[in-house]
Structure formats: structure tokens, C-alpha cells
Automatic annotation (TrEMBL):
Gene3D superfamilies assigned to the protein according to its UniProt record, in alphabetical order: HAD superfamily/HAD-like, Putative phosphatase, domain 2
GO molecular function list: hydrolase activity
UniProt organism field: Faecalitalea cylindroides ATCC 27803
Keywords: Hydrolase
Lineage, top ranks: Bacteria, Bacillati, Bacillota, Erysipelotrichia, Erysipelotrichales
InterPro entries: FCP1_dom, HAD-like_sf, HAD-SF_hydro_IA, HAD_2, HAD_sf, PGP-like_dom2
Protein name (record): HAD hydrolase, family IA, variant 3
Amino acid sequence: MIDTVIFDFDGLLVDTEIIAYETYHQILDKHGFVFTKEEYTQYYSEKTDTLNAENIIKHYHLPYTIEELLQMTFELEEKISSKGVKLKPGAKELLAYLKANHYHIALATSSFKKRAVNILQEHDILKYFDTCVFLEDVKHSKPHPEIFLKALEKLNVSNKNAIVLEDSENGIKAAINAKIDVICIPDMKIPSKEYLDKTLFTGRSLFDVLTYLQTNSSDDFTKKDEQMKIIEIFNRDPLLIQKLLEVWESSVRATHLFLSDNDINHIKEYVPQALKEVDHLLIIETIRKSLLVL
């Protein structure tokens, strides 16, 4: 039974990847370079600030030391962030659920402590974490497992009952290397299929994780597996959800008690072959619990 959840930070808990891109974009723009989101995603996403500073200086021949560019980056990012850093959908709801149900909760981030703590305090969510591991606390960055192993050590818990929540391929690799199950909620850069296939599942938002844990707390594990299968298919095919919702709108939302044979036939018409044997009521229940996915 899962009793420990370890959160990544940038791109998973908070929407900071776009701020990182904008920071580099503004710095390079002053030097006459065009810097696109595609370039950021391909070459700089998932990397540490120090490594990015080193690579940007080399690639664009900027007249700075790594320390100077880091300081410039931090100051500009702080200025951009002062307008507000958004939490990812479902973040507060998931954290509140975990705390209320006595899970061990850790943050494991490649961000510097001061930066991460400021954002956590801004959103009043630092209080949810039992422990945090920051960039300063480790010698090796992801995909090395050190950061997750240190989180387990500080919590004094086993990897067998833990899950990691990640958005990046390096994060998934680090969790696998630490022998911890991982759920992926992709951000700007979607991990390769090779690594997505190694996760428990790939969700669309942290609300999907909430649904998973709520279902996992039940003894009905068959239902859990089927429900997560439904969520994954919904995430891959939003049009399927809309078709099913048309049926739900006209019947289940109106009555909350039953589905007519005609409604059931409509649902079966749109359900992929993989779900033909799944209870139609479970499909409706999943839709109801996962409206955030729509």
C-alpha cells in the first residue's frame, strides 16, 4: 500500500518551465539572439541551472562567467516570478488529500532552496511537506537516484511503499534508478515512450494522481486497474470523453441513478476495444471523478 509520495518541483508542482524559458529568452535577446521554446525544450529543459548557464555561455559566446550568468538569471527570474508563479492543476487538492490521510510527503527538487521555498511559501504549501531535498543537498543531479534516496532516508521510509511524481525523462530515470515506482505528468517536454512505458501511468494533471490514490486506498484492486486504464485512454483521446459526456449529460447527470439500455449501447459504441469488458458504470464513475481531465 502506498504511504509515501515524493514530488518533483519545476514543471510538476509549479508552472516554472515557462518562466525559465522566458528568462533565457530575455537574456539572449539583449545580445541579439533569437531563442525559441523549441530550442529551450530540446536543449535546456530538465537540466540544472548551472549546466544551462555553462552551455548557454559556450553556445552563444556570452561574455560572462558561469557565476555571473547564474546571478543574472536568478535576478531576472525573480523579477518575472514576482508577477506570480502558478501552481499546476490539482496541486493543492492532492497535497491536502495526502496530508489529511497521513501520507509521508517529500519534495525532491534540483532547484536551489531559496528559490523553491519562496514559491512554496507564496502559495502556502510548504506546510504540507514533511521534508525537502534541494540542489544544495546532493552531489549528483538526476538521473542519478541520490535525490530520491535522500528523501526516503530523511523520511525513514521504504522505497517499496513510495511513489515519485515527475514530469521529465531524467526524473523518471532517477526514480527507476532508485527503485521507486513513478507516475509521470508531462510538462513542456514529453518523455520518450520508452520511459513513459516504465511508469505506473502517465496522467494529464495531478488530479489524475489524486484519483489513483483515492482508488488505490480501496480494497478493490481490479477496479483500480480498470479505472486507471480508462483515465489513460481518456488522456490520449479527449474526443472520446466528449462523446461519452454527451450520453452522460442526458442521463446520468440528470438522474444519478441509472442508465437506460439505449445509453449503455451508446457508450459501448464509443468505448475502445480495450474497455469492452469494463463495467459501464465504472466508466461513468471515472468521468465523474475526472472532470478536470476534460
